[in-house]
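Q: What would this chain look like folded?
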Amino acid sequence: MGKSRAEIQRAYRERQKEKSKDEYLRKERERKRRSYVPSDQLSENDREERNRRNRANLREFYARKKAVRTRHVEARSGTSGYESNGSNGDDNSNRNEEERTSSSGGERSRGRLLVRLDFNNQSEGKRKAAIKRWKRDRSAANSRIRLLEQERDKLKTKLKTTQRSLQRLKEGRVTNQTVELTPSKQTEHDMNEANLNSEQKRKLRRSLLLSNVIASEIKATKNNTPRHKMKALHHIVAGRIAKKYKCIRYLSAKTGLGRRQLGKAIQKFINCIPTNVVANKSNTEKKSSAF
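A: My prediction, written as structure tokens:
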């Protein structure tokens, strides 16, 4: 059965590796370096996929290293410890001959002692890899914590600014409700609220000031008037004209008088004696004089 195109290409790559391994690895490194994308520029799914492939490659690398180490240990311990006497004799004679050669050579031909300690570094490699992963995760966590702390500080500043704005707004409302302005200040406040220019203020200041002065006078009169004489004040302030132009509610808010009592006022009279009562009284007097 013939090979597929993938198998042919794989075999060709293997032959190229065997021919010039260093050149192949150099080109492969250059290709990887050109096509490498940093992790911070990848999406979360691509970054997880790359980490998964790297972990798989790392496991394969450690497996290959372990297999090579195992084969090397087996090759060194392949000969049995029970050898024939002849072989032991040959080894001893060779060792004695080397000792004599080295001792006779003196300073000219001093031998070099090579000691190889074949330790199992697999656990050490795993520990270093785990430490590296832990440091990388800790660095990422610290970066995330730093970003979250900066965002928290910004939100705290925004919260404090909003709280101060609300506090100023509440204080302004309380001040407007508790502190009574003079007619002049009330006039200026009304014109500023209406965003009038200087010419408009000049034309409207007198009429606004007059209305505020009258309202202040009525309020002062209301505070100094006994309760049983308040009806006369209601009849003087309100009437048909205030009802016609729907000013009863606003008049009550400006003067402090009751809205219902102002609404009941129909005609105006002085000294609490209505005109119809005066007319009836005069008619009665005329009839009595006629008799």
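Residues 80-87, 101-109 have pLDDT under 50 and may be disordered.
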